[in-house]
Amino acid sequence: MSNPSYKLTYFNFRALAETTRFIFAYVKVPYEDVRIPMEQWPGIKRETPFRQLPVLEIDGTVYGQSAAFNRLLAKRFNLAGTTEDEQAHVDAIYDYGKGTSPNA
């Protein structure tokens, strides 16, 4: 079985995609980091789930909503906790980070 290919698409700033970038860096998994210039956004907006960025593509399947795909990656890379209590702590850390983002 080959390694999955990952492609993260967002604007050229941190905010909602930064947690995803941290996850990939922490687990040392390569991914394509596509940074969309703001002037190109209107032309691709209709092609994105929920007409929003960021999106994560895994082997051709596109996922919207950063919280959802960050939880997916956390589970995939064994970062989500092994008990319900640990999972709640991981969710709390993610939610805190999302709430402190200047673009949240």
Q: What's the end-to-end separation, in Å?
A: 38 Å
Helix content: 40-55%
Put simply, the count of helices is: 4
Strand order of the largest sheet: 2-1-3-4
Derived from helix and strand composition plus strand pairing, the structural class reads: alpha+beta
List SSEs in N-to-C order. EHEHEEHH
Radius of gyration: 14 Å
Stretches with pLDDT under 50, minimum 5 residues? none
Strand content: 15-25%
General shape: globular
Mean pLDDT: 91
Q: Write down how many β-strands occur, each being a DSSP E stretch of 2 or more residues.
A: 4
The main pleated sheet reads as: 4 strands, mixed
Q: What this model shows, in words?
A:
By secondary structure, this protein is α+β, with helices and mostly antiparallel strands. 40% of the residues lie in helices and 18% in strands. The chain contains four helices and four strands. The protein has a four-stranded mixed beta sheet with strand order 2-1-3-4, with helices on one face. 14% of the residues are buried.
Key structural traits:
single chain, 104 residues, 4 strands, 40% helix, 18% strand
Topology:
Elements: E1 6-11, H1 18-27, E2 32-36, H2 41-44, E3 55-58, E4 61-64, H3 66-76, H4 84-100
Parallel strand pairs: 1-2
Antiparallel strand pairs: 1-3, 3-4
